[in-house]
Hints:
There is one protein chain. The chain is built from 12 helices and 13 strands. It has a 7-stranded mixed β-sheet, with helices on both faces. β10, α6 (219-230) and β11 form a beta-alpha-beta unit. The protein is 36% helix and 27% strand. It has helices at residues 3-18, 50-63, 123-132, 150-165, 196-204, 219-230, 246-253, 258-264, 287-292, 306-316, 328-337, 344-352, and strands at residues 22-27, 31-38, 41-49, 75-83, 86-96, 101-109, 138-143, 169-173, 184-187, 210-213, 234-239, 265-275, 297-305. The protein is globular, with a radius of gyration of 22 Å. It is of the alpha/beta class.
Amino acid sequence: xxxxxxxxxxxxxxxxxxxxxxxxxxxxxxxxxxxxxxxxxxxxxxxxxxxxxxxxxxxxxxxxxxxxxxxxxxxxxxxxxxxxxxxxxxxxxxxxxxxxxxxxxxxxxxxxxxxxxxxxxxxxxxxxxxxxxxxxxxxxxxxxxxxxxxxxxxxxxxxxxxxxxxxxxxxxxxxxxxxxxxxxxxxxxxxxxxxxxxxxxxxxxxxxxxxxxxxxxxxxxxxxxxxxxxxxxxxxxxxxxxxxxxxxxxxxxxxxxxxxxxxxxxxxxxxxxxxxxxxxxxxxxxxxxxxxxxxxxxxxxxxxxxxxxxxxxxxxxxxxxxxxxxxxxxxxxxxxxxxxxxxxxxxxxxxxx
Length: 353
Ligand SMILES: [Zn+2]
């Protein structure tokens, strides 16, 4: 094995052991920095000579079947690697810079579904979601920004539900982030004519019980999802809204009536991922400890269902009956007060608003 191959393998191995989500290659005038992203931290790991970084980047591009000769155009690629007998999906993207190409590798471990018991800082919220999955029909929406763990939540809920009920689960994703055997997964492929809306129509003819639609991002998809959930299917999907109740207003923008919303919507969950305070080192966890410590990040869920959901729907209709439910800020404050989350967690959340 050449030095370059060795180095590439070592970087991916270390990153996956440490739970790093992205490896950055940042070209500079004289050299290249390799940085690791872990949560909100992006830290320099190595400084390597330019000559070596060029070879390393080309090697990764080669592995991902990207055009090695092309350096002026941004490219994307992906590959699957086996790291310590576990599959890791690497998603690559390059950008031309004045010095050299820059490369970012996103690591998507294809591990077993995350146990639902470890998803949430407050496990009661996940239990609520799991019991709502027992419904035969209806719509469940999961919101949160990119990287908030929505996909992980969806996969572990689907897995838990599959294990207890053996229902036929079909997903429509863009892209498929985790390949699994217990779901039938369909990849959105616009060139082949599979968009969210045409794919969803095709899935409905394929006798599904549960349908997971990667994202509702247009009116047509929203309408089909509503129709599917009215006709005996449980539909799970994601949306980009700031908080849980934002999903209702987004559905209204897609011309879904309040009546349809009330008839179909079972729950809306909004989530954010937070760094957990290390139980051993406190707020500044040492890299060696981070490597061996299991729980590093955890989600906080704002879940609307039942009474709280009806209240929010009522509010969207223009009624103003006072009500309250565990909102993000209350839950984050609770996590801080109990010593699980660093004080900055609330600041980070406020900056999004
Ligand atoms: Zn620690």
